[in-house]
Amino acid sequence: MGRPVNGSWQTTTLHVDGRGRSACFVYPHRTPVFEVAAGNAVMKVTLHANRVDEASVTFARELAEQARTFAEEVERLHKGQIRRDSRQATDPATPGKAA
Protein backbone atom coordinates (compact mmCIF):
# COMPACT_ATOMS: atom_id res chain seq x y z
CA MET A 1 0.00 0.00 0.00
CA GLY A 2 2.68 2.61 0.78
CA ARG A 3 3.19 3.65 -2.84
CA PRO A 4 2.88 7.29 -3.91
CA VAL A 5 -0.55 8.16 -5.29
CA ASN A 6 -0.74 9.88 -8.65
CA GLY A 7 -3.89 11.20 -10.27
CA SER A 8 -7.32 11.11 -8.70
CA TRP A 9 -8.03 9.38 -5.40
CA GLN A 10 -10.95 8.73 -3.11
CA THR A 11 -11.67 6.79 0.07
CA THR A 12 -15.01 5.01 0.29
CA THR A 13 -16.26 2.85 3.14
CA LEU A 14 -18.89 0.27 2.31
CA HIS A 15 -20.53 -1.18 5.45
CA VAL A 16 -21.64 -4.73 4.68
CA ASP A 17 -23.89 -6.29 7.32
CA GLY A 18 -23.77 -9.86 6.08
CA ARG A 19 -26.19 -9.34 3.24
CA GLY A 20 -23.57 -7.94 0.93
CA ARG A 21 -22.62 -9.54 -2.33
CA SER A 22 -19.66 -9.64 -4.63
CA ALA A 23 -19.16 -10.66 -8.23
CA CYS A 24 -16.52 -10.66 -10.91
CA PHE A 25 -17.71 -9.96 -14.43
CA VAL A 26 -15.43 -11.25 -17.19
CA TYR A 27 -15.45 -10.32 -20.85
CA PRO A 28 -13.69 -11.96 -23.79
CA HIS A 29 -11.85 -8.84 -25.01
CA ARG A 30 -11.53 -6.46 -22.06
CA THR A 31 -10.46 -6.46 -18.43
CA PRO A 32 -12.75 -7.88 -15.73
CA VAL A 33 -14.90 -5.82 -13.38
CA PHE A 34 -14.95 -6.75 -9.67
CA GLU A 35 -18.03 -5.60 -7.80
CA VAL A 36 -18.88 -5.39 -4.09
CA ALA A 37 -22.40 -4.32 -3.13
CA ALA A 38 -24.37 -3.69 0.05
CA GLY A 39 -27.96 -2.51 -0.09
CA ASN A 40 -28.20 0.05 -2.88
CA ALA A 41 -24.49 0.93 -2.78
CA VAL A 42 -22.16 -0.68 -5.31
CA MET A 43 -18.39 -0.36 -5.59
CA LYS A 44 -16.66 -1.51 -8.78
CA VAL A 45 -12.96 -2.15 -9.24
CA THR A 46 -11.78 -1.83 -12.82
CA LEU A 47 -8.56 -1.61 -14.77
CA HIS A 48 -7.90 0.16 -18.05
CA ALA A 49 -10.22 -1.64 -20.49
CA ASN A 50 -7.56 -2.47 -23.08
CA ARG A 51 -4.27 -2.57 -21.23
CA VAL A 52 -3.00 -5.12 -18.72
CA ASP A 53 0.60 -4.85 -17.55
CA GLU A 54 2.66 -6.38 -14.75
CA ALA A 55 1.35 -3.77 -12.29
CA SER A 56 -2.22 -4.86 -13.14
CA VAL A 57 -1.33 -8.48 -12.41
CA THR A 58 0.36 -7.51 -9.13
CA PHE A 59 -2.70 -5.50 -8.08
CA ALA A 60 -5.08 -8.38 -8.90
CA ARG A 61 -2.97 -10.77 -6.85
CA GLU A 62 -2.85 -8.34 -3.90
CA LEU A 63 -6.62 -7.90 -4.11
CA ALA A 64 -7.13 -11.68 -4.01
CA GLU A 65 -4.72 -12.11 -1.09
CA GLN A 66 -6.32 -9.33 0.96
CA ALA A 67 -9.81 -10.72 0.25
CA ARG A 68 -8.60 -14.13 1.45
CA THR A 69 -7.20 -12.54 4.64
CA PHE A 70 -10.50 -10.71 5.19
CA ALA A 71 -12.47 -13.97 4.83
CA GLU A 72 -10.15 -15.84 7.21
CA GLU A 73 -10.49 -13.11 9.85
CA VAL A 74 -14.30 -13.07 9.58
CA GLU A 75 -14.35 -16.88 9.90
CA ARG A 76 -12.07 -16.72 12.96
CA LEU A 77 -14.27 -14.15 14.68
CA HIS A 78 -17.43 -16.07 13.81
CA LYS A 79 -16.06 -19.31 15.28
CA GLY A 80 -15.14 -17.48 18.49
CA GLN A 81 -18.60 -15.96 18.73
CA ILE A 82 -20.25 -19.37 18.26
CA ARG A 83 -18.08 -20.81 21.05
CA ARG A 84 -18.96 -17.95 23.42
CA ASP A 85 -22.67 -18.24 22.63
CA SER A 86 -22.54 -22.01 23.17
CA ARG A 87 -20.79 -21.63 26.55
CA GLN A 88 -23.29 -18.99 27.69
CA ALA A 89 -26.23 -21.21 26.70
CA THR A 90 -24.93 -24.10 28.82
CA ASP A 91 -23.66 -22.08 31.82
CA PRO A 92 -26.35 -21.97 34.56
CA ALA A 93 -24.66 -18.91 36.12
CA THR A 94 -25.22 -16.82 33.00
CA PRO A 95 -27.11 -13.63 33.95
CA GLY A 96 -30.75 -13.74 32.88
CA LYS A 97 -30.98 -17.54 33.13
CA ALA A 98 -32.62 -19.42 35.94
CA ALA A 99 -30.17 -21.47 38.01
From TrEMBL:
**Renumbered residue ranges of the record's region Disordered:** 77-99
Ranges annotated as biased composition (Basic and acidic residues): 77-88
Could you identify this protein by its name?
Uncharacterized protein
